Amino acid sequence: MNKKILILALFIAIILLIPLTPIHAYSNQNNASINKPSLYKFAVDAQDVDPPSYYSFQAFQMKPPSTTPMAVPVAVNAIFNNSGVIPKVFTVNVPVGNYSLVILNASIRETGGPQYDRAFYIFANGIPLLWGSTQEILNSTAQADVTYYQKLLEGTVTFQVVLTNYIAPRIGITGYYLVNVTLYLYPGNPIPGLPNYFIPLFVNRFGYSAVALSPTNDFISQNISLPAGTYRMAAVFYTEGSQLDEFWYANEPAPRNLLVFYDSYFSRSC
């Protein structure tokens, strides 16, 4: 059956749904004089030190079960220099099995000189799994619960990792990134009712689901075909601000409306 999904955005959306907001402790601060938030360590290797070399400060921190996970490397020390929006592509064989929890970890090391904070995304077969950014200096780590996508993450999976980095030596911006991405599969009874078919929307020329909307380009639509026998479906949208919305407090009103239509019927506003 053919269906039509319409997106109408009055302005650029500014919501970031997947947290990747690491925090780092500055060496020139007096540690005894500041009230530090809790720093979460997710070890990227057995040689990591304490205090950890990679920091993460997430509002929601997962507590994995006591079972030992199966670690599936996706990217190992992948270099992002003048990468822009072009993804680095990794084809990975993810073991099929029963898992109660699937965690995606991204650990990012900055080296080579100064660099800004840069947008960072991970996709699997074009489907977004993690949206966020690097921190402006030093190293960061973040994790996302991707158990909902368990049926997507089995067998041969194509991962696309995007870190929109740019180097400008003439103004002293020379930093680049080393990225490690790992899947952790925790054996156990899977969550009932997991989706078993995924359709990426608005796939760009690089093969992943992403589109830019603005006041002058505020509408996009796509026809899709649903498999026969489909009895339930959900649409998931991730949105983030860019450019003028970076300093949202100087561009009030800050909220942006995202309107979703399905077969010309209004479905959701967010």
Walkthrough of the structure:
The protein folds into two domains: 2-12 and 199-269, no CATH class; 62-187, Jelly Rolls (Sandwich). Helices cover 0% and strands 36% of the residues. The protein contains no helices and twelve strands. The strands form three sheets. A four-stranded antiparallel β-sheet has the order 10-1-11-12, with no helix packed on it. Strands 2-9-4-7 form a four-stranded antiparallel β-sheet, with no helix packed on it. Strand 5 and strand 6 form a beta hairpin. The two termini are 27 Å apart.
What's the quick description here?
The protein is mostly beta strands and 270 residues long. It has strands spanning 2-9, 70-80, 88-94, 99-111, 119-124, 127-133, 140-145, 155-163, 176-187, 219-225, 258-262, 265-269.
Give the topology.
Elements: E1 2-9, E2 70-80, E3 88-94, E4 99-111, E5 119-124, E6 127-133, E7 140-145, E8 155-163, E9 176-187, E10 219-225, E11 258-262, E12 265-269
Strands side by side in the biggest sheet: 10-1-11-12
Oligomer: single chain
Integer-rounded radius of gyration: 20 Å
Name the CATH class of the largest domain.
Answer: Mainly Beta
* Counted beta strands: 12
* CATH fold-level topology of the largest domain: Jelly Rolls
